[in-house]
């Protein structure tokens, strides 16, 4: 008999979340079976309908929790709230796992905010980074044959049809080349590029209230840049080329590894690369690493991001726990380059230089000046609040770089202030900015959350200053 997702969720027992963790168990195994057999819906109306249904489910879940609270004592309310978080997360995992694409990226973003969204919800949605439910291989077999020209078992010495990782746009299978090399084969979900266009088409009506403001064209430009950026992630030929460029930036002494790409087994929708052994962030933290280990990885992350920007003139704006591997020998693995902005314009590169110089000083006047240019603001009183918030946020983000000595990224107050400032930006509709701003913000927030979760206590400035020596920027 077919299993219904709603029945599974309703059947969850009244237990503490600690006893019902979604890392395994009958419920999530059955849910996984359902998700694996469903192709991605691509039509705009179908996706909008499913997303609307998800919103209704969440509203009802928390509405019933509120009503039940009238008749419960404090302990019962706390247990009920934990259960509600867990059930809601399963509903979101189901819907986002089915929709995939840009909608799943929203779930990934939410999972980047520990201590902000409820723990139970975040811990479950964190699976969307690299442990989303993969599709059954029967739905991908045709893609492999069309792209590589033959059955995978004829192309590779070994090929595991069960994916070991899956995310918003594709899933990854282990294989072995006939030369003996262990590889990871990333295969794009069928129709995923169309889903991104559908999701952004559905986004436009939500932005219509902004049409009456003077920032409408600027907001449209930012959303269009974001759409192109996420759609760019479906071009695996471009990603493979970027990965090979990034690989050339690092050396053995850096302790940073970028897998080799095998072009003969890579196409527009498939990338074959070396398989790297290592833990994602949650698995690393579960081992309770020492502060020195945390700090060493944070320094390598700093060098990796700085090397890409200052040496390679590339900015990987898709920073989240699923794109990094913490290897057993202490090295850091970089494994995803789908959303990398290439800084090819000299004017944009010069703006990066002015932004870098201002932010590394921490001086209000310097930051205010560059923020006026970056946010496309003026001295007009109508821009005063936007300028204040942008200047304060810029100072906060770059505080670890201009503060003397090691900086504690695990400071909860530091994180909360950043979240409060982002909320104030939205509340005051401070949307005007450089067209790349939405993607750049994604980069900043991603790094911020990675370092927060690591609990790193480091001084990143010496590494950044060392890496900027190749830029030719004066005063760095």
Uncertain stretches of 5 or more adjacent residues: 1-28, 50-72, 89-93, 95-118, 124-130
Overall 3D form: globular
Strands, total number: 12
Structural class: alpha+beta
Strand count, sense and closure of the main sheet? 5 strands, antiparallel
Radius of gyration: 23 Å
Terminal CA distance reads 66 Å
Q: How much helicity do the residues have?
A: 40-55%
Q: What is the arithmetic mean of pLDDT?
A: 76
What percent of residues are in strands? 5-15%
How many helical stretches? 20
Structure in words:
This protein has 476 residues and is of the alpha+beta class. Among the domains are: 5-128, no CATH class; 277-476, no CATH class. It is built from 20 helices and 12 strands. Strands 1, 2, 3, 4 and 6 form a 5-stranded antiparallel beta sheet that branches. A 3-stranded mixed beta sheet has the order 5-9-8, with helices on one face. The chain starts with a helix and ends in a 9-residue tail after the last helix.
Quick take:
The chain has helices spanning 5-10, 26-36, 44-68, 74-99, 101-111, 119-125, 141-148, 152-155, 192-207, 216-232, 236-247, 281-286, 291-311, 346-361, 364-374, 384-397, 399-402, 412-427, 437-454, 461-467, and strands at 158-159, 165-166, 170-176, 182-188, 256-257, 270-274, 314-316, 324-326, 332-334, 340-342, 407-408, 457-458.
């Amino acid at each position: 008999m077919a299993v219904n997702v709603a029945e599974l969720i309703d059947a969850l027992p009244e237990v503490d979340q600690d006893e019902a963790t979604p890392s395994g168990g009958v419920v999530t195994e059955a849910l996984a079976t359902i998700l694996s057999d469903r192709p991605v819906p691509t039509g705009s109306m179908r996706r909008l309908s499913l997303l609307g249904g998800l919103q209704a489910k969440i509203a009802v879940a928390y509405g019933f929790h509120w009503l039940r609270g009238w008749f419960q004592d404090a302990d019962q309310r706390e247990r009920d709230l934990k259960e509600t978080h867990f059930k809601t997360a399963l509903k979101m995992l189901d819907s986002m796992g089915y929709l995939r694409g840009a909608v799943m990226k929203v779930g990934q973003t939410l999972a980047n905010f520990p201590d902000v969204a409820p723990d139970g919800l975040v811990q479950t949605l964190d699976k969307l980074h690299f442990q989303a439910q993969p599709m059954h291989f029967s739905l991908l077999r045709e893609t492999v044959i069309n792209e590589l020209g033959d059955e995978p078992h004829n192309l590779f010495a070994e090929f595991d049809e069960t994916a070991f990782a899956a995310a918003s746009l594709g899933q990854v299978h282990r294989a072995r080349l006939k030369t003996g090399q262990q590889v990871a084969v990333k295969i794009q979900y069928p129709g995923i590029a169309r889903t991104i266009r559908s999701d952004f088409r559905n986004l436009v009506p939500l932005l219509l209230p902004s049409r009456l403001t003077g920032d409408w064209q600027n907001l449209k430009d930012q959303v269009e840049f974001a759409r192109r950026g996420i759609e760019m992630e479906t071009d695996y030929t471009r990603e493979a080329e970027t990965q090979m460029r990034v690989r050339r930036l690092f050396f053995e002494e850096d302790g940073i590894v970028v897998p080799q790409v095998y072009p003969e087994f890579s196409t527009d929708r498939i990338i074959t690369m070396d398989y790297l052994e290592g833990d994602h962030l949650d698995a690393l933290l579960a081992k309770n690493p020492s502060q020195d280990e945390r700090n060493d990885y944070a320094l390598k992350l700093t060098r990796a991001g700085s090397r890409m920007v200052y040496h390679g003139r590339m900015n990987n704006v898709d920073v989240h726990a699923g794109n990094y591997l913490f290897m057993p020998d202490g090295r850091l693995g970089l494994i995803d380059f789908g959303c990398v902005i290439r800084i090819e314009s000299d004017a944009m590169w010069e703006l990066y230089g002015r932004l870098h110089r201002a932010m590394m000083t921490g001086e209000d006047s310097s930051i205010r000046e560059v923020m006026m240019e970056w946010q496309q603001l003026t001295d007009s009183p109508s821009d005063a609040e936007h300028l204040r918030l942008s200047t304060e946020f810029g100072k906060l983000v770059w505080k670890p770089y201009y503060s003397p000595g090691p900086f504690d990224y695990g400071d909860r107050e530091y994180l909360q202030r950043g979240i409060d400032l982002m909320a104030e930006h939205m509340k005051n509709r401070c949307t005007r900015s450089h067209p790349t701003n939405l993607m750049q913000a994604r980069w900043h927030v991603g790094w911020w959350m990675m370092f927060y979760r690591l609990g790193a206590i480091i001084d990143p400035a010496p590494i950044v200053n060392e890496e900027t020596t190749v830029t030719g920027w004066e005063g760095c």
